[in-house]
Amino acid sequence: MSQKVLLNALNVGFIKNISLFNGLSETDKELLLRDGSIYSYLRKKPLFRHGDPIMHFYVVCSGTIRLYHETPDGCEVTTDILIAGDSICAADIFSSLGMYQTHAEAVIDATVMEFSTEWLKKTAQRFPIIAFNLLSMLSQQTHKLKTEAENQSNMSALQLTACFLQQTCVFNGFNPAGFILPYSKSLIASRIGMKLETLSRTLPKLTEIGIASEGRHIALRDLATIKQNVCDHCPGTEHCHAYDVLHQKN
Amino acid sequence: MSQKVLLNALNVGFIKNISLFNGLSETDKELLLRDGSIYSYLRKKPLFRHGDPIMHFYVVCSGTIRLYHETPDGCEVTTDILIAGDSICAADIFSSLGMYQTHAEAVIDATVMEFSTEWLKKTAQRFPIIAFNLLSMLSQQTHKLKTEAENQSNMSALQLTACFLQQTCVFNGFNPAGFILPYSKSLIASRIGMKLETLSRTLPKLTEIGIASEGRHIALRDLATIKQNVCDHCPGTEHCHAYDVLHQKN
DNA sequence: CGATCGTTTGATCCGCATCAAGATAGGTGG
DNA sequence: CCACCTATCTTGATGCGGATCAAACGATCG
I need a labelling partner for B234 at 20 to 30 A (CA). Which of A97, A196, A205, A228 fits? Predict the structure, then answer.
């Protein structure tokens, strides 16, 4: 299933930036990092499944993790796609349910840092700033969920797809003038709540609003048109911040 | 706009049960309650508007409060309907944004207890159990949002309506064998993300799954059928817990 | 070379939104 | 008490977006 790997300097350097540790001294950070272990998961291997007792708090170091669950009629809904730097299930630990509310599995081979739930609870008590960081993380997540739910119902397939591509570009630090989709189209469709067929039909239409696509190759050609067709319909969302990031680069 | 009213014994008695204060001694609770003031808001009066700087944390004492916002094309989307005992915007206080992310207004005349944000932050530091309660509240809210977002896209108008009626019945402590809708149909439609016309057409169809409706009068006649048609499609949601509550009463 | 996976394309269908008009009810003033 | 008015709700006709079903295409792999 999973395999423990050595904690190396590179990983530590990267992981120092996780938001949970914001505001701590470097010494404290390094001390706390000693309490975690890094594991690697092969493609398609689960980190945990819905219903498992909550044992760990995770931070993604490399690769891609997918959160999903199955609907009663058997099809899988992807609720989130996580990349390096993202943390997993901080919320669930403090819920009274005591078990994971979602499946989590590696999309491509991934490494993940794990801390025990007990450790997180104790640390939150020992360092008030960590409790505060947690509150702030949860609060951000809540806001993200709200806006996403709303977009889902108010935006067309075209707009949802444009949003996703733009955010993918920014979060992964790709070049908007041309990049390769890091996920399969089935995964993307499942993430943005539409059928593969619909996504397939939608991608060519994106040229209308300034996004070129051919196979897995995407190019965000015309930011102004994108803004007009998408951002203006979802002010204040994560997507719009992503737009601003791209806009400033130019 | 709003009017300060006297803190009377009845209100205090009620408000002692708010989840934020879970685990505190009665003495501490009463002490903390002194820091809040109770205000009354008339029908349609706003508590705050999207973009206002966050000044207060609220707990609803009586009446109904609606959270909503306007879409760019001008129509209002109701994101939540709050009744006595619910708290408002605990999450927003800890986000970095510093302003409300939604409008809040009284649907019918309401009384509300208000605490300053500073008070909440300080209190969370002074009483670790309150920080923990906050984490737990946020975490629950996150879970609720997730399942709601999913239901919104996977369930039919029929199912969504059934869910809403059942939850309304339970949260308000109504008699499932017959109760009067406490909200206008426009408000309900806006809350469950459909058009008034659709809701209007859906209500008669509910007889198929054991819910009778006539005007504002609702009766949940056949719990088994409801379960089969709704709960079995949304396991683990708030709605299903509401179902269980009704089921146990019988 | 067939086999499997991921994707595209076509034809059709269904649910909900939309537009438009009518019905009911609650409230107000004469 | 009735006439009027406005808010709330119902009903009908129509259209569109995306789901569904079905088949074929292209790439990768053993």
Answer: A196
